Amino acid sequence: MIKRDHRPERWLAVALFAAGFVLLFRRWLFSGFDLAFGDDQDGYLIIALVEHWHRVFTGAASWADPNFFYPQRGTLGYTDTFFLLGLVHAPLRMLGVDTFTAFMLVVAALAAIGFFGFQRLAVRHFGLPPGYAAVGAFLFAFGNVDAVKLIHVQAYCAMVLPVLFDLFLSGWSGKRRGILLGATAGALYAALFLTAFQTAWFFGCYLLLLALLYPAVCGVTATRSLAWQMATSKRPLMLAAACGFAAAIVPFLYLYLPVLFAGHSREFAEVASNMPQWRDLANVTPENAVWGGILKWLTIAGRPGRPVWEVELAFTPGVLAVFIAGLVWLAMRARRPLASADPYLVVLGMAAVIFWLLQMDYFGVRPWRAIWAFLPGGGAIRYPFRSQLVANLFVALVVARVLAAMAGRRLLTVMLCGFLVIEQTNLVWPPTVSRRAALAWIDAVPAPPAPCRAFYVPPSAADGPSAAQLQTAAILFAAIRGIATINGYSTWVPDGWALDEPASPGYPAAVRDWAHRNGIEAGLCGLELPAGGWMPGLPQ
Fold first, then answer.
1. pLDDT tens across 185-202, in order?
2. For residues 151 and 309, is the Cβ–Cβ distance under 8 A?
């Protein structure tokens, strides 16, 4: 059995959380809460979509219709919806907190949920000592991989996953509240689909893998016993979870099924171009404080021609080494485990490894093609390596278990824990955008002329802001000021919408055509961003 520390250092979890929070949120904290996660492209879009829920809960907008791509309906289904983030963001906005600060407080809440949710899961359900569970929680909530992907905060919604596990496992072991906890877990998982589809979808894939791996690791007898419990004594829990999920998934299906039936999906060539190579299993970005320079010298990180952000999602080499060595050690003892939860950790670790193997190239063949082609939702996944944010939960649990097993060698274990924490330091990521600067130009724009009910971005010069910057500036302005725009930026675009390049020669005609086909010529005007000048009528 794992030797428990009878003198737990209660301050360790708080200290590690504080250290990780300062590391990851340092630019926000030390800029007077000015620098928010994101950039003036995807970052603006995300903040605008979170702000959309404030408008929904105050009755100013229909939930499925954010005020871009006007007057197209159902455009929220063209990208992630950020529902759970908006659920917390909206009350903060109602209390007078500005859009950017409310957004950062929501992300800060995610960090706390992920860290302390992981620690509770590791201690209560995997029997790990609190100190080593806290180290695993640091790796999960504040790791290098988290910093790299916080520009796309939907991936950070993986912080909800320990809570999902805890709810279900608590319901499994409890007698009185099992049905309530199961229903809550099912509803929360469905809400995660409505918040961050890829994160929820990856988690679903892992659950499928876990079910397939369980008989191989735990044996046929244990599998039959588990299935019998699910069908008998735990049947109320399973039904409650299924019913909670079925009820809460309805808005997701309402929003996204029309997009699916419209034929929106990714070509596999596009998906493959963004998938990792073998060396990317060590690609932690050139900006990692400990490993970046070495990996760049080895041409593993910072290689030309590779997609930025999307393959720089490896676990740091120390964490990876401890995970692989620990998984092999645990697998060798799976039939005679030192602790009752060890076989389950083997299943979790093997699922992470298999998910890596599915994404790799084998002499021109990628097994992921089968998932892309046959698994529901697979055709919508552009960046399979973002699954690392979900795999991080399993990896951190295995690493925490290995550290706990080394507790007898205290000095070595403390040094290793310190190194694993330090190697998560990234000098550049996550990127930030200035709250003050954005709100300054938005507030400086005068009220629109009386006839104007919606606006477009006027034709722009080729040497000006990029098309994406113009589109997302329009979306952010529309969300905060509450006036619709025909411009937009998302994963998919409406049929017949050709306004993606304001600098193109055909852009003025495309604006006129969109206005004519949708009958909005009379109430449409132009808005120069960020200058703030209004232009009556359509572009000539």
1. 999 999 999 999 999 999
2. yes
